[in-house]
Every structure is written in structure tokens, then in C-alpha cells.
Amino acid sequence: MAGNPVTRRSERRSPAAPATTVLVVDDEADIRELLQISLLRMGLGAECAGSLAEAKAMLKEHSFGLCLTDMRLPDGDGLELVRFIGSQCEDLPVAVITAYGSMENAVAALKAGAFVYLTKPLSLDQLRTLVKSALALPPKSAETPGRHELLGVSPAIGQVRAMIDKLARSQAPVYITGESGSGKELAALLIHEKSARSDKAFVAVNCGALPENLMESEFFGYRKGAFTGADTDREGFFQAANGGTLFLDEVAELPLPMQVKLLRAIQEKRVRKVGDTSEDAVDVRLVSATHQTLAELVESGRFRQDLYYRLAVIELRMPPLRECREDIPLLSQAILARLARGRSSGRAVLAPSALAALTQYDFPGNTRELENILERATALATGDEIQPEDLQLAPPQFVTEPGGSDAKRPLHEYLDRVEREAILEALNQTRFNRTAAARLLGITFRALRYRMERLGIR
Question: CA 304 → CA 176, 203, 308, 310, 382, distances in Å?
Fold first, then answer.
């Protein structure tokens, strides 16, 4: 019916299903015809539009399984179409294909909700892979919970959960930031489990735990006889994650020589085993994480800027537990239920006074520290009820206010206040010119923007 958004797909469609129709949006008739012929040969239907207005009208009239759009259109751009589809046809994957590729356009398209951003010319193999991945996406209305779950009712966790759902429907590299123990690997797992790659491998790599002299062979594999001890051929992390997701935890720990090799593998989508003369094609989605600030490491020369831009296409911030205090009771209940499965004496519960102590604690180690505290308390409790003394919470760190005041405050609050005052002073001096303020503070614009977001400065 005219005026209605695209009907949601109720099940996954096979790329070979003739009922699946692809909308091709491009201002060049030759490109439209070429894509249409290629899609028909793949067993798909194809409808074409030469402008933004024509595409919007067709989306209101018909149901499609995928949309391929150019970035430059005679009456607008592909970003406007991506946003329209996101608001009116949320289950429809849209791929942006353009001859005028740039990092800025790619980031903007992926943040707007595009499934993938590719540059012309597009090979037939690339088109097949794109279509297969896009049509394998489950509709949002039919998503089933995976093996992992992000617990919490706080607004901060709600925003993270919504962002994960959005990122799962994209192929963009994701950079997850957050303090140690805040759940960065869990977020990466959820992105994988909710994506079209969920039936493939999720390979997690702790970059800080790998010996530098073994990194290349661990990432790319090696051939028999490549070095002493290489008795057989072995695949690396990239081959193991082929078709799935490769999670690089603590990516900031990679030494510069390995950063160069990783950058080439990401750009070429090909890897060469140590001792081999040929390269293997790999298809992995990269998700990286670190508790450090990569923008600051780039500024200091400890992390390559080109690799940073490849990894940090979209950033996901995991909030510390002290920003989600209302989630502590729910998290504690879930952790105690899990610990009870290994106890013969039943499940321990928190006394009201113990729960109050937990909600007032700052948790410098975040959720991981909460798990450790509850596991220790379960072992120390004399009965089934955990008391405040069983928690053995570390006393908060306080600093005395300068200027002779006897008032004291927690260390992290004091440092945040000092940093906020310094930033606001610089912004006031520069009339809120952030570039000039960053120069005045001696940091990069990106580092300033990150700090402003963290401190809630608008």
C-alpha cells in the first residue's frame, strides 16, 4: 500500500531465492544495468532508481531484501537514503558503493547505519560476498538471544545495548573503549552473536600476552620448516577467524613493526604465512579494544595513525560500573546465582547492609572486581547471608582539597574535577574553539573531544 514502509522480513532469505529483490540506486544508467544483470545471474530480482526521490518512492511502494546505493545522486546523497531507510525500513540492509571513497564518507555512512561501504569498481566476488552477508542478517524483530547477555537497567547500559544492536548489522570495524573490567570483550561477543557472522568463529586475541618474536606467526600462521620447531603447517588468528570476527583485545600493546604488518593485512584482506610465497584471502570483521586512549598514543608516536583510522571507524564506549550504580543489585544477583552452581550449600544472598555497601563503592576494577569480591565473600561468609565485613571492600582513596581546606573527596572525583576545570578554562579562553583549546592544552583535537565526552562537557 502506498505510503507504508517496507514490510519487515520474518525470516532469513537465501541469496538464491528468486523472491528476494534488490533495489539498485545509481545516477549512471550503465552502472544500474551492470548491477542488475549481475544480480539476476545470482538468482535475485533487481529494481533500479536513478535518483533519491525515485528510490524513496519505490521503498514506500515495494519490499526489498537489500539496497545498493551510490553516494552521489542528482537530488541528494546516499547518506540521506541510508538515514531514510534506517527510520522507515529498519530491517533493510543498505550498502553504499561509490567511486569517490573517503574515510570521512565511510565513517559517516557506517554511523548512519549502512551495512557496508565499498568503492568502485566492485568485482563480482565482492558483490556476491556482500549480498550473501546482507541477506543472512536476521530481522530485528526476529532476533533471538545469544549465549551472552549484557545485564543492566541504567540509561548508560541501555545506550550501549542499542549501539551493539546497530553495530551488529554493519560490517564496520569497531573500537571499544573503557576501563579494565568494564565488559569490552562481552560487547565484542554480543556484536558477533547478533551479526550475520554468528555461525562463524569468534577469535579473541590478547595482544599484550603475545611474545613479540611470535606475533607474526601467531597472527598469520606458518609453513612447515619456516623456522626451528615448525614441524607442521599451522593457521594463524586471521585464518581461524575467516568468515567470522577477530577481536583484538589490548590492541595498544602491539609493537610498531607488527602494527605495519597488521595494517597491510587489513587493507589487502590477504595474509601470508611465515615461510610461504603466496598470500591467502581472508574475510574477517575486526573489533578492537583497549583501556588506553589510542588518540593519545598516536600523538606520542606509539601507535600508527593510519592503523588507528582503520580500527577506530566506529567507537563504542563501555561505561565504568560507578556510572551504573543502579545495575549493581542485578549484576550481584546474577553473579551469586552463577557461583551457587558450584556450591553444595545453596545460594548465598546479600544482606541489605552489604548491598548498600556495594552500591556506594567505586569499583576501580569494575564488573570484574565485583565478581572477585562476591566470590571471596561467598567463601568467607559463615552462613548463607553475606555481611558487609565479608566483602572486604578496599577503603576509598581520598585527597585533601588544596588551599588548606579539610574537605576530602575520592581521588577519581578530584582528578575529574581538575581536568574539567582545565578544559573549561581553555574553552573559555578560546571562545569555545575546540581546535584552539586543544592546542592550548597541549593535546590533540581527538584527545580533547574524548575527554569532553567522558566528562560530559557539551
Answer: 17, 23, 6, 10, 53
Amino acid 254 reads L
CATH of 403-455, one of 3.30.70.20, 3.30.2130.10, 3.40.50.970, 1.10.10.60: 1.10.10.60
Q: Show the 3-state SS of 284-296.
A: CEEEEEECCCHHH
Q: Between residues 401 and 453, which one has the greater pLDDT?
A: 453
- What proportions of the chain, in percent to the nearest 5, are helix, strand and coil? 45, 15, 40
Beta strands in 15-70 (DSSP E): 21-25, 45-49, 66-69
Going by their DSSP bridges, the two strands 72-73 and 76-77 should be labelled as antiparallel
- Put the strands of the sheet holding 174-177 in their side by side order: 202-206, 245-249, 285-290, 174-177, 314-317
Instruction: Determine phi and psi for 161, rounding to 5 degrees.
Output: -60, -40
- Which range, 19-23, 164-168, 430-434, has the best average confidence (pLDDT)? 164-168
pLDDT at 382: 84
Reported confidence tier of residue 16, pLDDT bands at 50, 70, 90? very low
For residue 278, give the C-alpha cell. Answer: 603466496
Q: Which residues of 21-57 are buried (b: 16+ CB within 10 A; e: fewer)?
A: bbbbbbeeeebbebbbebbeebebbbbbbbebeebbe
Residues 25 and 161: their CA atoms lie apart, in Å, by: 32
The position carrying cell 520474518 is 10
Helix (H) or strand (E) holding 73: strand 72-73
Q: Which DSSP string do the residues of 232-280 spell out, in sequence order?
A: S-B--HHHHTTTSEEEEETGGGS-HHHHHHHHHHHHHSEE--BT-SS-E
φ and ψ at residue 265, rounded to 5 degrees = -60, -40
Q: Distance of CA 53 to CAs 73, 75, 113, 367, Å?
A: 10, 7, 19, 49
| Among the ranges given (80-89, 259-268, 338-347), the one the predictor scored with the smallest mean pLDDT | 338-347
pLDDT reported for residue 288: 96
Q: What is the mean pLDDT of residues 88-108?
A: 80
288 Ramachandran zone, left/alpha/beta (phi>0; psi -120 to 50): beta
Q: How many Å apart are CA 198 and CA 146, to the nearest integer? A: 9
Domain boundaries, given as residue ranges, for the chain? 21-140, 158-317, 321-391, 403-455
